[in-house]
């Protein structure tokens, strides 16, 4: 196989993996209202434990993932990550049978474990498989795969598990017979078994395919310091990496607010579950548009740094737009945050790992740990919404995130780049 053909095949294989990331990750937008109803949860704060369990896995497993990759290499590590995700999907079967919210959360955490390993391998892989200057373009292509899957997955899952959701919700709330109520909840809970069983089978098949694929191994053991700069012997000597990890933390928090919390926001504005169940897809389609823009403009017309500045400023403006408007206009502004968020990961990740050399795997793990922002930041929303209107609470959560991202785009990514 020629070098050019191998490059194309590698891009295609990683594209499939990013499709899987998106499909599994953005199911959470549907799982939040589904599990709140099926598990008879009493508050939005409880329901948001869905994102907490899923994204906290990245924090705990990112560094161990880098050590696993040191032993297995990228290809075997990716295959192992897919297998772990399959186990997490299979846990949904006993969780649905027992209608156990705790077991559902365990399954989500295990899925996050697998994704942590998969992302720790695939993100630096796609960043360094070609020139670092065009890394944001390649990650944008991966982002299209990711967000198309993410836009489809909540729509597909909600069509299966939340069909007639408003009617079911009314029946459950109005019935006084405990046995009838439990039967309704059990029937609803069982709807999740088939789709997650199918996903488990597909993930195991993909794990085997990746293991025997022609995906090449990439070595990143040499130093990569700027010419004339002394070699560094510790990951702590790269401040821009640590600031980048915090930037990923704030970015993912803002992304989850726009993608997963948008449904809760709509419910608080008085919209029905039949309407809000598809709001996550609207956010993700706007992200797809942003990724297409990234593919066409980076690096030919836009440098990664400028793309991140524009994205952060757009996020700030749209956040104020959601705050200053009402109803569907406010929802539209939040959905358009997907457009602002789309180029953030493709810009932040390569900027933060540039020049790490032999520390690339560990640096990648530090950035993946930042995904825990998706677990922690959204939890502030239900707490703030107890004291403020929904639009105000939303603004108070996302505005500091976009402000810090703007700082990283302007200055943070250069701190400690040269000695």
If you had to describe this structure to a student in words, what would you say it looks like?
By secondary structure, the protein is an all-alpha fold. It is 77% helix and 0% strand. The chain has helices at 3-25, 28-38, 44-47, 49-90, 92-98, 101-128, 135-161, 165-174, 178-190, 193-211, 239-259, 261-268, 273-276, 279-297, 304-324, 327-341, 344-353, 360-369, 373-376, 380-384, 390-410. α1 (3-25) runs parallel beside α7, α7 packs across α17 (344-353) and α11 runs antiparallel to α17. The model is unreliable at 221-228 (pLDDT under 50).
CATH superfamily: MFS general substrate transporter like domains
Shape: globular
Q: Estimate the strand proportion.
A: under 5%
Describe the sheet with the most strands: none
Query: Which blocks of ≥5 consecutive residues have pLDDT under 50?
Result: 221-228
What would CATH call the class?
Mainly Alpha
* Helix fraction by DSSP (H/I, runs of at least 4): over 70%
Count of DSSP helices?
21
